[in-house]
Design goal:
mainly alpha; 3-stranded mixed β-sheet; globular
């Protein structure tokens, strides 16, 4: 990776400078991150090992859990360690790597959520054609394309950020390396680069949110002709998805679709989509899904029985 000759490292100011609050940050986010990893790991193992969770929806949920775990891991561990460190230093190369990882797995999460919405649309609005349209090969191709698009998005973001010259302060007023705080430190006019960044991340977030909400409106509208039981089941699934979409896309749109300015609330808003959503996804997709809960119970009861024998 190329290195900016003017700056070799940055100092992350974190969520707070107060020692007592830093200890609270350590405890709270250690619990959140541990629950995120454990919850998503349980979903990954359950879907991989369960024969009853072979539908496209769970195929996509498997990759959503992978994206959630990797996305959270690219941010949370450093936040947790830095909360107990006197000097929160991150090297230039580590900073650029974090930017790349955040946007790779963040974009992947957006695309997988869109694929899950498409799956629900076909299942509810085109039930007779569902087995043909959502074949296993088609799902695999869509996931591969999602990884490719995410890689292109993250590479583009990194290429733009690495063009920035940093020749002044190296204090990043954030708990991670992100686009807006880095733009603030650049010793050049960042107007054009910000437009390019917004046209990338901003468009991905905004268009993804718009398409998802339109698809769910269509799905909910089409439920009028279904039976009461089918409506109840579809509403339960769609409600879970809509909650995730709002929690993830709302903060993303706020951060990535505006001029190159930073606000004091930015860090707290960023917590929602960098830490909160990966933590909530396992809860939403298991507590509100009987099939996943039953599969987990069967899987782990079988494992306990085999260990006793």
């Amino acid at each position: 990776m190329l290195q900016n000759k003017s700056v070799t490292d940055f100092i992350l100011l974190g969520l707070t400078q107060d020692p007592m609050r830093q200890k609270m940050v350590f405890i709270i986010f250690f619990i959140f991150y541990t629950a995120t990893v454990v919850g998503n790991f349980l979903i990954i193992v359950t879907i991989k090992c369960s024969r009853t969770l072979g539908s496209p929806m769970y195929f996509f949920l498997f990759y959503l859990s992978i994206a959630d775990t990797c996305f959270s891991t690219s941010i949370a561990p450093r936040l947790i360690v830095d909360s107990l460190s006197a000097k929160k230093t991150i090297s230039y190369n580590e900073c650029m790597t974090q930017v790349f990882a955040m946007h790779l797995f963040g974009c992947m999460e957006i695309l997988v959520l869109m694929l899950m919405a498409a799956d629900r649309y076909v299942a509810i609005c085109k039930p007779l054609h569902y087995p043909t349209i959502m074949r296993r090969q088609v799902c695999v191709i869509m996931i591969i394309l999602a990884w490719i698009c995410s890689f292109i998005h993250a590479t583009t973001q990194n290429a733009l950020v690495m063009r920035l010259p940093f020749c002044g302060s190296n204090l990043i007023d954030h708990y991670c390396c992100d686009l807006q705080p880095l733009l603030k430190l650049a010793c050049m006019d960042t107007y054009i680069i910000n437009i390019q960044l917004v046209s990338n991340s901003g468009v991905v977030c905004s268009s993804g949110f718009l398409l998802l909400m339109i698809s769910y409106i269509i799905i909910l509208y089409s439920l009028r002709s279904h039976s009461a039981e089918a409506r109840r089941k579809a509403l339960s699934t769609c409600t879970s998805h809509i909650i995730v979409v709002i929690l993830f896309f709302g903060p993303c749109i706020f951060i990535y679709t505006r001029p190159p300015t930073t606000f004091p609330i930015d860090k707290m808003v960023a917590v929602f989509y960098t830490i909160g959503t990966p933590f909530l996804n396992p809860l939403i997709y298991t507590l509100r899904n009987k099939e996943v809960k039953n599969a987990m119970k069967r899987l782990w009861s079988l494992k306990v029985t085999s260990e006793r024998m």
